Predict the 3D structure of the following.
Amino acid sequence: MPLGSASAKGDVYDIEFKITSPAGKELPLFHFNGPAGIQPAAKPIVIEIPKHQSREVLLALNKLIYLENGKNRPLPEMLAQHYSVRASVDTSGDARWTRTLSQWMGKVVSGELRR
């Protein structure tokens, strides 16, 4: 499954995060877990997930930010206010570096969040 890209600066994951308010409104959540700047010589991150198994990607929660009226609100603050979070990986042809790759079609979604 294509998951993002890697370079000497670090990994960048094609993971989309959304939070849902207690009232059920879904909102975008920005993640700043990747390295800053342009990725020189980025190579694809492709992982295998055998049937009935899982794969973990560890990201810093405080780098997941919701922008509300110009104010940055980190994910831990939103979770304390009973918001929920959802992460998905777009593995269709629309993902950043997979536009010419068709190893997997669809969307993988997981709702598990660990502290």
Remarks:
- The longest strand covers residues 84-90.
- Residues 2-110 form one domain.
- Helices lie at 75-80.
- The chain has one helix and nine strands.
